[in-house]
Amino acid sequence: MLDTMTLTKIVGGVCGTFLVFLLGKWGAEVLYHTGGGHGHGEQTAAYVIEVETGGSSEPEEEVDFATLLAAADVDKGSKVFGKCKACHKLDGSNATGPYLNGVVDRPIGAIDGFGYSGALNQVGDTWSPENLNTFLTDVKGSASGTTMSFKGLKKDTDRANLIAYLQSVGG
Q1: Whole-prediction pTM value?
Q2: Would you write out the chain's pLDDT as a tens digit for each of its 171 residues?
Q3: DSSP E strand boundaries for the chain
Q4: What distance separates the 2 farthest-apart alpha carbons in the chain?
């Protein structure tokens, strides 16, 4: 049963734990307080750290996607496809996403029996290499309303390699 001594121990344990958290919060504020004008009349100094820019001041030359695609590496593209394997297959059968063999230059939303989501027609009429590049850069931004949860591929070379790989697997 629950006698008064057990109840006292439980209440003491809860209060002790709360006290430890309060003391920890207070200690952290003392150690890491940066001022910030919280009504204590404190003034803080602002520090500026100057960083030297490494490299030339000229902006980097942007490479045309067609040039990247022409120089793409199919083997590297197959490795990038590893990110797609969770939802897409290359054997002609649908999974969570539609199959991707023969996707390059295929009309968008053309697979019978697959329930497409979102407004994929915002991307274009066909999955051309350029449309695939746009889509894979920012999936949600290029086809709002899609349920595809993939964030996209940020590196131009990764997208070019993947598209070259998808071209090589054909339909």
Answers
A1: 0.62
A2: 689 999 999 999 999 999 999 999 888 888 876 655 555 555 555 666 677 666 555 555 567 778 888 888 889 988 988 888 888 888 888 888 888 888 888 888 888 888 877 677 778 888 888 988 888 888 888 888 788 888 888 888 998 998 898 888 876
A3: none
A4: 81
Burial class of residue 162, CB neighbours in 10 A (0-12, 13-18, 19+): buried
- Cα distance between residue 171 and residue 46, in whole Å: 62
Q: Which among 96, 100, 108, 99 has a CA at the least distance from the CA of 168?
A: 100
With CA atoms as reference, report the closest residue to 158 among 60, 84, 61: 84
- The residue extents of the domains of the chain are 78-109+116-169
Secondary element (H or E) of residue 139: helix 139-142
Structure tokens at 28: 């952290």
Q: What single DSSP character describes residue 76?
A: H
Distant-in-sequence contacts of 58-64, Cβ < 8 A, 24+ apart: 63/156
Cα 23 to chain center, whole Å?
Answer: 38
Which fold does the domain 78-109+116-169 belong to in CATH? Cytochrome Bc1 Complex; Chain D, domain 2 (1.10.760)
